[in-house]
Design a protein that fits this description.
alpha/beta, Rossmann fold, 7-stranded mixed beta sheet, 13 helices
């Protein structure tokens, strides 16, 4: 059962997805890599559970690209045009369930080409399955650098790896210190990270970058498992007064950080938090989020473009016109769309549906998209696109670092909301 894209709410998308999943579970195992004039891609993705917000963003990105490619004539292989279609199952944000559903897609549904799940943890659960069956997977949401140290041959990721997420905030803190007559080594950092593969890799990247500048890490906390309360960390922050607070806990952790920074009126000159856009912290907490720094894989102001969506700004406008409820397009959606474009490009360059020929075409990918450059290292990670840092300025996300990509100067220092 395919999902049609019109203008609909995310809740509506989830309802439709539930119907689709129920129909698939009840259907005989008839799916194959190509059915008639349709190429089948499969994805186990989080539509319920703690990763559901971002899972739905990613699904929306997949579906927008599928519709766009199909509307533009589809995928041309062997002189024939084919449509794309994605078969989804809800992994419930549970790694064991994700692995089970990936196996179902491959063994029972006959899917030969996979799109990734949401999050590094879910990707880590599914990658051994796709590797076992030699099924190529193009993933857009698993950034953990440890995914690309396992020797996988069938895993390809369009996004920048996790150790890069908050690197720009460390470099920016060093730059600001020098502008104010201080040494980067004077900078004191407080950290709070979820205990999951992605966030712990982000932490490792922060540690490496802080070490380069000899910065002092004065708080190194794990967020609680349910990500609903970081007041213990923030109480320490108030007492020891760091120059920079960095937080990574996916969407729920970002929302908790934004809420409690305001509630507790925590005054830190710089605050950098992953997943700001996906958590919709501006919509939820308004002006109290001003001057929070948010790393992003993509921004609509960047000068990327392609033949499918045009510029980054044009993708942004189309996404908002297609899906209700988005003030800002999360990069999770944009990179999901890019993953579908990579599949189209690989099928056409392979000019074949032979799985190994398509896998080799994926490995040779070297292209520009509205999302940025995509070129895979031998390990499968994208080495052609940097991370950028946006700051919430009067409710708008503006790129402030690295300086060559900046659309606006950084606001510094950030003051406690309400102070």
């Amino acid at each position: 059962m395919a999902i049609s894209i019109g203008r609909y709410t995310r809740r509506g998308a989830l309802t439709i997805m539930g119907v689709a999943t129920a129909a698939l579970l009840a259907a005989p195992a008839a799916q194959a890599k190509v059915e008639g004039d349709t190429i089948i891609l499969g994805s186990a993705i989080s539509l319920t559970g703690k990763y559901s917000t971002n899972g739905i963003h990613a699904q929306n990105g997949y579906e927008l690209a599928v519709k766009r490619i199909n509307d533009m004539g589809g995928v041309k292989v062997g002189g024939k045009s084919y449509k794309l279609k994605v078969v989804y199952y809800d992994d419930e944000s549970t790694p064991a369930r994700g692995a089970q559903l990936a196996e179902r897609l491959i063994k029972q549904d006959g899917v030969q080409y996979m799109l990734g799940p949401y999050s590094s943890g879910m990707t880590k659960a599914i990658a051994p399955v796709t590797e076992k069956y030699q099924i190529p997977m193009v993933e857009a949401e698993g950034a953990s650098r440890s995914l690309f140290t396992q020797g996988y041959r069938y895993l390809f990721a369009v996004l920048s790896t996790s150790e890069q997420y908050l690197a720009s905030s460390i470099a920016l803190a060093a730059e600001i210190a020098e502008k104010n007559g201080k040494k980067p080594s004077d900078v004191k950092i407080a950290m709070a990270f979820e205990n999951d593969p992605f966030s712990q890799d982000v932490r490792a990247g922060v540690m490496d970058d802080a070490k380069k500048y000899n910065m002092q890490i004065i708080i190194d906390d794990k967020l609680p498992r349910d990500l609903s309360d970081m007041s213990t960390t923030l109480t320490k922050v108030r007492a020891v007064k760091p120059d920079l607070l960095v937080v990574s806990g996916h969407s729920k952790g970002a929302a908790t950080a934004a809420r409690q920074l305001a509630e507790m009126k925590i005054n830190v000159p710089m605050v950098a938090v992953t997943h700001c856009e996906a958590a919709k912290i501006v919509a939820k907490f308004g002006a109290t989020t001003n001057d929070i720094l948010c790393p992003t894989q993509w921004a609509e102001t960047l000068s990327y473009s392609d033949e499918y969506f045009g510029t980054a700004a044009e993708y942004d406008a189309l996404f908002k016109a297609t899906f209700d409820g988005y003030k800002n397009v999360p990069y999770q959606a944009a990179q999901a769309s890019a993953a579908v474009i990579v599949w189209k490009d690989a099928f056409e360059r392979a000019n074949s549906f032979d799985r190994d020929k398509v896998r080799d075409a994926l490995a040779a990918t070297d292209m520009m998209t509205f999302y940025g450059g995509i070129r895979f290292a031998p390990e499968g990670n994208n080495i052609a696109k940097p991370m950028v840092l946006r700051q919430i300025q009067n409710g708008t996300y503006n790129v402030v670092a690295p300086s060559k990509y900046a659309s606006h100067p950084v606001n510094w220092p950030r003051k406690a909301p309400g102070s």
